[in-house]
């Protein structure tokens, strides 16, 4: 007797070759959780909080990442799998940004390497 198939809407059923929407959806959820788990291992919550704390104190993300021993790309990449992360990061950037930088201008980004949301927006604005 072959083993009964897993029910539709499960990643196991997708692995047995079913491509229906429900099974494919379950597979994507599975993939997301797996990526999320991997990201959490690479960049665990206590380290995330430490990075945010440092940025709030005025460290640039690249410096904050270096201090906790991770790559700054890891800090930025997290917003792809954790939508709330970008908001927390931006909150910390706004709290810790230098008061003497002209924020929201290309100068802030180019000359002061400020990556607060306003300077990033100014930097990415298409040229007139
Ligand atoms: Zn199915
Ligand atoms: Zn800025």
What features would you describe in this structure?
With 128 residues, this protein is mostly helical. Helices cover 67% and strands 0% of the residues. It has 8 helices and no strands. The longest helix is centred in the first third of the chain and has 22 residues, at 21-42. The mean pLDDT is 93. The structure holds zinc ion (2 copies). The site of one zinc ion has 8 residues, from α8.
Q: Helices and strands in order, then pairings?
A:
Layout: H1 11-15, H2 21-42, H3 45-56, H4 61-68, H5 72-81, H6 83-96, H7 106-112, H8 117-124
Task: Give the strand content.
Answer: under 5%
Tell me roughly what share of residues is in helical segments: 55-70%
Q: How can the largest sheet be summarized?
A: none
Integer-rounded radius of gyration: 21 Å
Q: Report the strand count.
A: 0
Residue stretches low in confidence (pLDDT < 50, at least 5 long) are none
Domain tally:
3
Q: Count every helix, treating DSSP H or I runs of 4 or more residues as helices.
A: 8
Q: Find the structural class using helix and strand composition.
A: mainly alpha
Could you give the distance between the termini?
A: 70 Å
Return the string of H and E elements: HHHHHHHH
């Amino acid at each position: 007797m072959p083993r009964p198939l897993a029910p539709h809407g499960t990643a196991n059923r997708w692995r047995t070759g079913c491509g229906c929407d429900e099974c494919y959806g379950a597979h994507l959820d599975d993939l997301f959780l797996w990526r999320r788990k991997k990201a959490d291992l690479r960049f665990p919550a206590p380290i995330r909080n430490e990075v945010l704390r440092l940025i709030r104190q005025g460290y640039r993300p690249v410096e904050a990442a270096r201090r906790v021993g991770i790559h700054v790309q890891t800090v930025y990449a997290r917003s792809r799998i954790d939508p709330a992360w970008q908001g927390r990061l931006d909150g910390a950037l706004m709290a810790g940004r230098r008061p003497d930088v002209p924020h929201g201008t290309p100068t802030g980004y180019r000359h002061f390497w400020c990556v607060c949301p306003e300077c990033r927006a100014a930097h990415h604005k298409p040229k007139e």
